[in-house]
Amino acid sequence: AELRLVAARxxxxxxxxxxxVFRDITERERVEEMxxxxxxxxxxxxxxxxxxxxxxxxxxxxxxxxPAQVRIFASRIGAEAARLANLTSRIMNLSRLQASDELDxxxxxxxxxxxxxxxxxxxIQATSxxxxxxxxxxxxxxxxxxxxxxxxxxxxxxxxxxxxxxxASSVGVGVKAEGDIVEIVVTDRGIxxxxxxxxxxxxxxxxxxxxxxxxxxxxGLGLSIVKHAVQRHGGEVRLWSRPGRGSxxxxxxxxxxxxxxxxxxxxxxx
Length: 270
Ligand code: ADP
Prior knowledge:
Blueprint (H helix, E strand, L loop, with lengths): L4 E10 L2 E8 L1 H37 L4 H32 L7 E5 H10 L2 H7 L2 E6 L4 E5 H17 L6 E9 L2 E8 L20 H6 L7 H11 L3 E7 L3 E11 L2 H11 L1
Parallel strand pairs: 4-6
Antiparallel strand pairs: 1-2, 3-5, 5-9, 6-7, 7-9, 8-9
Helix pairs in contact: 1-2, 2-7, 3-5, 5-7
GO cellular component, one term: plasma membrane
GO molecular function: phosphoprotein phosphatase activity; phosphorelay sensor kinase activity
Subcellular location: Cell membrane
């Protein structure tokens, strides 16, 4: 990070000598700016569903003697409420990941379990989108971390892969050990991501235009959660994508020995 200095205090020591104390404001300013942006963006994102709910409530009032209409508006209120619930829980998750406190539940976690729960969590979404999710690759690998956080991260990639794919296509979720790194690779043959968006989609609330018109249900927080979750585990996320051809997101995490490799050693010591 660049160092930005400001004069904090100047003391005249003699007519020819002035002592000036500088301090680095960059980090503090940056954190403060990020916090302000986050609050502003969050309020903006919350206003949309809240506004929709109050309009729908008015619509229900004026359609009170038309039960069919009332049912339609009521179900749309339900959908907006679900969207609000999803948005708030994602905002909570993201701010927890960004806070510096320790992850809750760190242990050796099976990559098979992470992938299985991520895929299972989106089985209904896949079926209704007509997209097949195919698992493959290495089995029996372990990473150290919070299994819920990691499953959510992989799940967000799976959800996006399904959401931005045409029906009757397939999404691949593969696992590969590369030296002391494990790669969890999520591939789709969907709409792809323009080069100029590829860095920005990991920012909070950023959505590429193409996708916005296609699917308005997203929060724009999914990839930001993925990035922070993976970084908290000492890993990184890589992206390959071509518009019209598809995308591949790769989560890279440090590989650790699994519990069964640790257990026999303990036995011998007894
Ligand atoms: P959202 O809730 O909008 O999906 P994300 O943070 O998960 O938010 O993703 C940010 C944006 O990145 C999406 O709105 C979309 O434009 C783009 N994106 C993410 N994953 C994919 C993908 N697999 N294929 C194409 N575009 C994607």
